[in-house]
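Q: Predict the bound structure with adenosine-5'-diphosphate.
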Amino acid sequence: MSEFSIIDEFFKPLGKFGSLLHPSSADIGIGDDGAVMTCPKGMQLVIVTDTLVEGVHFPLETQPYDIAWKALAVNLSDLAAMGAQPAFYSLGLSLPQSCANEAFLSSFSKGLKGLSSIFDVPLVGGDTTKSDRLTLTVTAHGWVEPSHVLRRSNASVGDKIYVTGKIGDGALALQAVLGNYPVSGVDDLVFEKFYRPMPRVELGLELKKVANAAIDISDGLVADLSHLLDSSNVSAEIDYKRIPFSSSVEKYIGVTGDAWLPITGGDDYELCFTLSDAEATILEDKAKSGLLGVSISCIGKVIEKQEQPVVWLNRPLADKECSEPLVKGYEHF
Ligand code: ADP
Ligand code: MG
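A: Predicted complex:
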């Protein structure tokens, strides 16, 4: 297949503008030298980029559909953590010859469509090249009111600290895929979450009005929470018992005695955020009425800066000898 037939057949159809989020008929998508988009009045543009490399960010046997889904999902998760409304995205794709075929590209394109249609974000451009290793770079753009931008750096002493959903499913699924833990001990839902994470976009839009600070959890709860704390120049008191785990993760901890993998492994794509007491009460009420679309759990509170970023309550015995891994997430170099 030629570069241009690939673009025409598999990427152009993903550039349809279907929504009110794209108000201008003057916008230009795939097909010219550059994309031209109209920024809604009064909004600021939020730009995020994430690269996925075969063998580093996804196991080699991952389905093309899931690779594409994840490449977009991790970017939408970053937009969510900024409080941004996703608007459109571009795709830099480096394909090995073995992937330049109908079967791979059709599944890949469907994966992009599957997620992009949920949030109505069109593909507006990109680049397609040949390389030895499948590598995808998605750049996603979103809008947010300047006064509502969610930052990592704004957590205040006394804030309550929350996470969405469950923590550790991604890390557990990876252990099972790598053959380090029996697949039979892991729920299908956990694999589903690993292969097709659902970015917490709607919650991000809710949080932009009320949260003091937010970050998305991609490298592990402890590492990403530590980034937020560092940026805000504070520490946290976290109660291990209040961290929400799925039954598969609880079983993993019971069987292996490893209480730390779930909070130091990556691939959660949940949000971690801080709220004042007053905002926490309001948001918890909304959560109880089912208005948030995702569960939220308070896992601790922001305290004055200490030597350690995190002061633990109910620290499990399994960690007696090792404190070091607690501040480490995934690092490339
Ligand atoms: P140029 O040579 O001017 O950089 P290209 O030939 O690389 O343009 O691309 C032609 C058009 O197709 C451009 O509008 C570009 O944005 C789009 N495009 C190329 N690759 C992709 C891709 N992987 N996803 C989406 N759009 C793409
Ligand atoms: Mg080009």
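A: The domain at 160-318 is CATH 3.90.650.10 (Phosphoribosyl-aminoimidazole Synthetase; Chain A, domain 2).
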